[in-house]
Give the backbone structure.
Amino acid sequence: MKEKIEGRILELVDGDITEMETDAIVNAANAQLVLGGGVAGAIRRKGGPTIQEECNRIGGTFVGGAVITGAGDLKARHVIHAVGPRMGEGNEDEKLRNATLNSLKLADQQGLKSISLPAISSGIFGFPIQRCAEIMLKTSIDYLRGQTGLERIVFCLFGRADYEVFARRLRQEIPG
Ligand code: AR6
């Protein structure tokens, strides 16, 4: 599914984010920047050891923050590590919004044109997928309506069920 917003593209795909060829892919990271399971595990396995090594040099960031590294052996050029909230820690919606927004801003600052994001926090961190879709899509749509050099934002959802949740929400946000 593809929508145009101010001449820029917002796209949804069902697939594995480590296969994406956008300038950057976003990792669903933790504040320690230790690549664990889920998206991070797939990035670690396919991207090779340099990504974790770069994360170790950065050392960590706050919940809602994002940092950038190279992408090792992956097809993308960069990995943006965005730290979403763990369900139950408090103020989760705002933190997820910030993790999304800071990822997009960081891509922009680096002059990147395209970025792929997963449904941050909705796996191991236990955030509800429906609310995740609402927050991440609204943040991205608002961002594309503002001043940005980004030309394409892709949400890479893992499986048909999550894809459908995002697709339904996007149709509500951009009717017709
Ligand atoms: N491509 C796209 N989406 C994926 C992939 C993939 N290869 N694998 C999983 N997903 P998660 P979190 C989906 O658990 O909840 C790690 O240990 C998954 O179905 O990756 O933010 C980190 O190191 C879900 O919808 O991230 C952190 O400690 C979404 O991606 C912690 O988990 C996010 O699931 C982060 O937990």
Q: What stands out?
A: Residues 16-18, 28-30, 35-40, 42, 84, 118-125, 156, 158, 162 surround AR6 (CB under 6 Å).
